[in-house]
Amino acid sequence: MSEFTDMEIYARVISAGSMSAAGREMNLSPAVVSKRIRRLEERLGTRLLQRTTRQIAMTESGQGFYERVIAILASVEEAEAYVADAAANAKGTLKVAAPTSFGRLHIAPHLGKFFQSNPDLAVNLDLEDNFVDIVGEGYDLAIRIAELSDSSLVARRLAPVHRILCASPEYLERHGEPQSITELMEQHVCLAAANQDPWRLVGPDGQITLRTQAPIRTNSSEVVRECLLAGVGVALRSTWDIGPELREGKLKVVLPSYRASSKVGLYAVYPSRRFLPAKVRVFIDFLASLYGSSPYWDEGVEDWLRLPEEIKHEA
């Protein structure tokens, strides 16, 4: 500690045998040590030490107080050592919030590898699609897919998120492929979970906002995904969610000139950069190295992520 408490000074005087010896150990003058002991006695309302010109001796109260003080100081030292060790070493339980589908697909399958490198860590992973109150609900961090605005929280971008319009070949065979946004909205079923409506798209003429219409309303993104695969309609989906289906031809991109804003990303969000616990740092670093600027879920679908103008320019 940068400043000694009165209890620490008292304990040091007893262990050193004199005020002058204790002062030398703590780099304090004997006068300061004597003043602090008197202040402690006045606050307690009793004499702790009998002083003579040559030595000091504890009173009965002083003896009982000393025995309890050294126990308290030992506990404080142990607590400080525990916190310092936890800050320097990844151990304990990490409480994490993440979106339901993303957590199931892209966090849970990799936890085994994470635990191999961090055997002293446990993870409490809560999956839900609403933003949690990180500080109020006691989370160490949250994984969020969003276009984040400035806030009091710290956000680290882990990966880009590409969201594109798509439909199953069976749906397109029955209803035809939309050739414009107007045709999409007027002639097609547009699927979206409640928290994903409206669609905010960026296209050739800039940003547009579209209200979806479908015979099913749901709060579940996974229900929308299953309806999309079942040929119910068109949906705006992230490649982390439908990459395999795109590669296998179970889904096709429609209106490739339109997609969600590139400002939407995958972020790790946590309360503060100051005194960042090691357990939080190693988990964020693990996810960042796992995903990166070209995440594994985009392998094999890169051509779908390029705008038609980019393809024309290359040709």
From TrEMBL:
The family annotation for this protein states:
Belongs to the LysR transcriptional regulatory family.
Q: Is this entry keyworded Cell membrane? A: no
Q: What is this protein called?
A: LysR family transcriptional regulator
Matching entries from PROSITE patterns are given as: HTH_LYSR
One of the entry's Gene Ontology molecular-function terms is: DNA binding
**Residues in domain HTH lysR-type?**
1-59
Which organism is this protein's natural source?
Answer: Roseibium limicola
Keyword Transcription on this protein? yes
What the entry lists under InterPro entries is as follows:
LysR-type_TF_proteobact-type, LysR_HTH_N, LysR_subst-bd, WH-like_DNA-bd_sf, WH_DNA-bd_sf
